[in-house]
Amino acid sequence: MSPQSWFRRVAARLRTADPYVVDTALAALVLFAVSLQWLFPDEGDDPLSWQGWLLGAATAVPLVWRRRAPFATAWVVSAATPAMAVYHAPPPDVVWGGLVVLYTVAALSPAWQRRLMLVGWLAGATLTMQHKEHARPFEYAFHLLTILCAYGLGTMARDRRAHTEAVEDRARRLERERAADTARAIAEERSRIARDMHDVLAHAVSLMVVQAEAGPVVLRGDPQRAEASFDAIAAAGRDAMAQLRRILGVLKEEQANGTSPQPAVAGVPALARRVTETAGLRVELRTRGEPRPLPADAEVAAYRVTQEALTNTVKHAYASRATVELDWTEDALTLTVTDDGRGPTALDGGQGLIGIRERAAACGGSAEAGRGPDGGFRVVVRLPVVDERRAEVRRRGPV
């Protein structure tokens, strides 16, 4: 194992350890360093006394509380260190406790406390060295540089912690935003599927109800027509099942396995014919202008809006005739469904009409509904088409 990897492992172990245990061990280590002069008295000529040892212990023991009360601990050590130097029995060779509290204050304390403690220690070290006998210039440099290095290491630790917290906060914020986007996408998809299932079921059930009510009436007098009614019921049920399977296939992510695509505006003529054949409502289809490409969501919306409007006509309007108009212009498709019956007087008259408005708005279009100019009910939906010039620019790429 390389020294660098060993150091990283030890640092990681210390970061995850109990801080009180680490600080107690650090205080014991500093106390041992301070006590070396008593453990090896022959190596120096400085006088020794138990009062001096107590002053030295006062620079080490408070380190147990250095993270719980960094500024108060720094004050105690800052008072005990010059007292030990002035007492001179013995003077401190290295201010071990002072280095630890300077590092701690620089890493954990507010700016004014950090600056006050740094200036105080630099001034105190300089004044204390002046009272030391035979102090040489390199000793001034040594003490002042050790103080600055301890303070600089604490500043680096504070900056690194702040950077780590900022990165973690950003990661949490991005995770919350991603979760919110996912929840919003799920809600939108569920809303779309709910609208599709409403359109499919409402349309099919309406046709089946109409034919089922007509079947008993003509059963005795016109068996062939009654048989056609039951055939229409079966056809509507099969069509509803096929569309439901397609919708549920999307939920199960089975599109790659051959499920049919979503309905589009090209299916509107077939829809009109099916309503005419199964519901007894004469549906006339009119087309003006040259068809243009629609966005994918607008393709589905055009079909579903027509389906919902015709379903409402069959269920509520008591109409005998309906007209579907597709008016193509350069920038939009205007889809108009008009009947000769009766219906709501506003677009918010029912859930189906609300769904029409939401579908149109989701595609960047608009929807209106109300009484037609010749009576009956009319739904007008405007859907934007694809800008062919922009599409051509996208196909060609940048110049």
TrEMBL record:
Transmembrane feature ranges: 20-41, 95-112
Catalytic activity: ATP + protein L-histidine = ADP + protein N-phospho-L-histidine
Organismal lineage: Bacteria, Bacillati, Actinomycetota, Actinomycetes, Kitasatosporales
MF terms (GO), sorted A to Z: kinase activity
Keywords: ATP-binding, Kinase, Membrane, Nucleotide-binding, Phosphoprotein, Transferase, Transmembrane, Transmembrane helix, Two-component regulatory system
Gene3D superfamilies the record matches: 1.20.5.1930, Histidine kinase-like ATPase, C-terminal domain
Keyword Membrane tagged: yes
Name of the protein described by the UniProt record: histidine kinase
InterPro entries: DUF7134, HATPase_C_sf, HATPase_dom, Sensor_HK_TwoCompSys, Sig_transdc_His_kin_sub3_dim/P
SUPFAM superfamilies, A to Z: ATPase domain of HSP90 chaperone/DNA topoisomerase II/histidine kinase
Pfam families cross-referenced by the UniProt entry: DUF7134, HATPase_c, HisKA_3
Entry keyword Membrane: yes
Enzyme Commission number, as recorded: 2.7.13.3
Positions of the Histidine kinase/HSP90-like ATPase domain: 297-387
